[in-house]
Amino acid sequence: xxxxxxxxxxxxxxxxxxxxxxxxxxxxxxxxxxxxxxxxxxxxxxxxxxxxxxxxxxxxxxxxxxxxxxxxxxxxxxxxxxxxxxxxxxxxxxxxxxxxxxxxxxxxxxxxxxxxxxxxxxxxxxxxxxxxxxxxxxxxxxxxxxxxxxxxxxxxxxxxxxxxxxxxxxxxxxxxxxxxxxxxxxxxxxxxxxxxxxxxxxxxxxxxxxxxxxxxxxxxxxxxxxxxxxxxxxxxxxxxxxxxxxxxxxxxxxxxxxxxxxxxxxxxxxxxxxxxxxxxxxxxxxxxxxxxxxxxxxxxxxxxxxxxxxxxxxxxxxxx
Length: 320
Known about the structure:
Elements: H1 3-6, E1 7-9, E2 22-26, E3 34-38, H2 41-47, H3 72-83, H4 91-94, H5 99-106, H6 118-121, H7 138-149, H8 154-163, H9 167-194, H10 200-215, H11 237-242, H12 265-280, E4 294-300, E5 304-310, H13 316-319
Parallel strand pairs: 1-2
Antiparallel strand pairs: 2-3, 4-5
Helix pairs in contact: 9-10
């Protein structure tokens, strides 16, 4: 048999008869950055939503008796629907419906929402790891709502034609506006209750939290995030606001050795974008430098990197 027909791509969906096939997956330690191997028992248990404690029971994948069964979460959802039909909105399907009614329900028009392949909605082309800059594929969320909650999407299509925007996008926008108002009012109430006890640090961090909340979208925090410390219990507000202070067992180091530039220009540009992104979100600020922290980049998939901040080279880890 042709080897290509028995090897599955690790970033795609696993077919029902593919558990005994080989998987092609990324491996950063190989020369080609790829490897072909069989699924392990632990991975198969994860697919079926079973406990990893069963690894010792099944030594090989071929010994697993549930290969042709449905995953545990899927079975649980089905059983929950049968036990509580009204709660799941399926009382009509489970009632004593006549044959013509069942036929009519089965012929109900299914919303024509296209679902992109995993290689596209993950935000990358050839890896199971999602890129940091990948946009949230909102179509997957919307299609779930229209298929499960609103099976008849004629009203949604009418709304889109009339207002030029999805009803779900408008609903998300309204809820996001309401969320920002509640955050603002809760901070004003907190500062008003304290009155003379308010410290400048409360105002500064509070304004920073509001600013980042105003930049937030429904899906991400493009401007960074700051904890809403005033919503925490009184005993934890200072730690949440300022962070936990470090404890030193010796004098902190004075490490001022400059970071070496990346030799690969493409990696250098990625590192630069990561550092500028951290700075733009306010996680790194201008000021007097007493000690530097080294960093290096490791591959994240095929098109991105993950930054590793190394506090051992400067000696910081040794005295913390």
